[in-house]
Amino acid sequence: MTYCSDCGATTEWQVPPDDNRPRHICSACHTIHYENPKIICGCLVTYNDQVLLCRRAIEPRHGLWTLPAGFMENGETAAEGALRETWEEAMARPTLQGLYALTSIPYISQVYMIFRATLDAPEHAPGPESLETQLFTADQIPWDELAFQTVRKTLTQWVQDQSRGSYPLHEIDITESERARV
Amino acid sequence: MTYCSDCGATTEWQVPPDDNRPRHICSACHTIHYENPKIICGCLVTYNDQVLLCRRAIEPRHGLWTLPAGFMENGETAAEGALRETWEEAMARPTLQGLYALTSIPYISQVYMIFRATLDAPEHAPGPESLETQLFTADQIPWDELAFQTVRKTLTQWVQDQSRGSYPLHEIDITESERARV
Ligand SMILES: [Zn+2]
Ligand SMILES: [Zn+2]
C-alpha cells in the first residue's frame, strides 16, 4: 500500500502509538491501514468412498488437481462460502458435515477452512475455473498432480480417516519449506 | 476505498470481467482491490473448572467481559495468533487443546476462531487492553455484562460441555438480529 485508500495521500510504514508492529499509516489523514490474513473456504466432497477433485483451469497451478475452494467473501458465513465455491468450481451441491481441516499458511498469510460434505448422487461438473471434475477413490488420488500442499495434507488425513471410519477436525500448519515439496 | 492504494487514482465500484460481484477497481491502473472477511482469534482458557475472562479497557464495549481475542496478524498461524492475543490481553500462557468455536458474523464480515486452552496454574493479569482478568466458575459467569454475542454463545456451549465432560467443535453463526440481544 503506497497511497491512502481514504484520501489518496502517500502512506508511511511505521509503528503506530500503542502498537508493536509497523502498519501503513496515511501521512495526511493519519488513518492506520491494517492488513490481515485471508480466508480460503471450500469442501472435501465425498460420494460413497470417493472424493471430488477439480482440475484447475486457472493459474497458479493450471492443470493440477485441487479441492473446490476459494476466497471467502464479505457478507457470508464460512459454511456459505464453502458451498458457494463448491458450486462455482465443481457444480456440486453437497450436504455439509462440519469443519474438517483448518490450515494456516503463515508465510502467505492465508487460512484454509475445508468442510467435509457429502453427495447423495455423483452430480458434478466443471465450473469456469475448472477444466474437469472427477470422483476418486483413495487409491486413485493423483498424488503427483496435486496443486497445493494444503490439498495434499488434507487428502492424506482423509485417506487415514476413511480407513478408520471417523473424521475429526485436523489443524494443519504449512511452512515455507514444505511448499516446495508439493 | 475511494483511492487506489497502488497508484493514488480514484476507484470505481464495478463488477470486473469474469466476476459476479462489484469490487473497487482503479480507474487508472485497473487494479482490482478485493475486500475479504477478517479473522479474530483467541482462547477459551480454563483453570480447573473456571474460565478466564477479561474486562475490556477499550471501546467498543468498554467495561464488559470478553474472551481474550483479537485480529489475527499476517505471518502467524491461527494458533499462534490465539496465544499471542491471550498473552497480550490476559498475560496468560495456556496450553492449546484445539479449535473449539468457529463463529461467522457475516453482517460485519468477521470469523472468530476460539481455541480451548488450559492453565496449570491460575496465572493471569490484565494487559493494556484489559481493566482486569478473572477466573469464573460456570455459575459465576457475568451473563449480564458480556461484551459480544459470540462470547455469550461460546460460553453457553462451554457450560453445557463442562457438564458433559466433552468439548467438540462448535460452528456458530450470528445474525444481525441476534446482535442487539447481547
Ligand atoms: Zn489518508
Ligand atoms: Zn491504481
From TrEMBL, chains A, B:
Signal peptide as annotated in the record: none
Nudix hydrolase domain mapped to chain residues: 22-161
InterPro entries linked: NUDIX_hydrolase-like_dom_sf, NUDIX_hydrolase_dom, Nudix_N
Gene3D superfamilies to which the protein is assigned, alphabetical: 2.20.70.10, Nucleoside Triphosphate Pyrophosphohydrolase (3.90.79.10)
Pfam families per UniProt: NUDIX (PF00293), Zn_ribbon_Nudix (PF14803)
Entries under SUPFAM superfamilies matching the protein: Nudix (SSF55811)
GO molecular function: catalytic activity
Domain of life: Bacteria
Protein name as annotated: NUDIX domain-containing protein
